[in-house]
Amino acid sequence: MTTDSSLLNSELELQQQEELYQQLLLQTMGKMQTENPDSKVIRPQPGMCVKTVSESDKQKVFVNICQSNSVPPPPELSREELVELLQSEDPSGYRVPMSLGEPHTEVDNSSQGCTAYDVVINQEFFQRCQKDPLFQQFVILVSLEGLENKYSLQLSRDWKVLKNRKFLGSVSEQNIRTKSRPVIQELQPQESSAATARRPEFTLFVEPPAGDPEYLIAEIKLPGVPSSRSLVLDVGEDRLVLTARPSLFQLDIFHPFLIDQENSVAQYNKSTEILTVTMPVVSS
């Protein structure tokens, strides 16, 4: 499996950037509940503490990777697929839903001041990472990239997992949004010109096939699209909008399900040229 898309890392809030991983629904946290009443409070469990330094000033930085079932799990990925992914041109193509907390000042064992960040991932995925060193290294890399993207940091990849410490500081409650914002955007004319854009072939199906649907999955064929950087994807509560630039494809569809927008994930496989969008169903 060769993938070409970037991180979907998150604290349950939409961010817009140039590349696909910043056009997808990024889940972001760090908003106070008074600013965003549509949220819930979680208290994550300690997991592991990673020590690194800031490249700019060589100051100590600690990353507390925590665990909570309130954060959705990432898509299934075998060890073999992860090895191939790490050897690909875009090793960040496997997105791990995560909550990135605000920086807080702590004191290390040498009584020196330092900065710590709390990163929360799904509990079951964390346990898998504990059992497999390759997955553990990967989730640390993803966490560092997520913090760098959010806080404009540059962190050293020469990290160390502390053996006798699962958390630096004290575990704090975090607010996670439970109600999404409208995310359908008006596309610019040059991106959505019906005169040149084609409607791609796509398939919608639900999982499980029988009983109450848990996920709505869209598989969209995008022949000729070389990279996820050419894609702009918006997922609404009952709508999906996709544009492949420059004016290659455009898809705008409604569906009969209410979707959990912030927990939706997408991945573009450049070998098959198929974009897969997995959307949790709130209700039918």
TrEMBL record:
Domain called PIH1D1/2/3 CS-like: residue spans: 212-282
Gene Ontology terms describing biological process: box C/D snoRNP assembly; rRNA processing
Cellular-component GO terms for this entry: cytoplasm; R2TP complex; ribonucleoprotein complex
InterPro entries cross-referenced by the UniProt entry: PIH1/Kintoun_subfamily (IPR050734), PIH1_N (IPR012981), PIH1D1/2/3_CS-like (IPR041442)
PIH1 N-terminal domain segment(s): 28-182
Pfam families per record: PIH1, PIH1_CS
Role noted for this protein: Involved in the assembly of C/D box small nucleolar ribonucleoprotein (snoRNP) particles. Recruits the SWI/SNF complex to the core promoter of rRNA genes and enhances pre-rRNA transcription. Mediates interaction of TELO2 with the R2TP complex which is necessary for the stability of MTOR and SMG1. Positively regulates the assembly and activity of the mTORC1 complex.
Family: Belongs to the PIH1 family.
Protein name in UniProt: PIH1 domain-containing protein 1
Biological source species: Seriola lalandi dorsalis
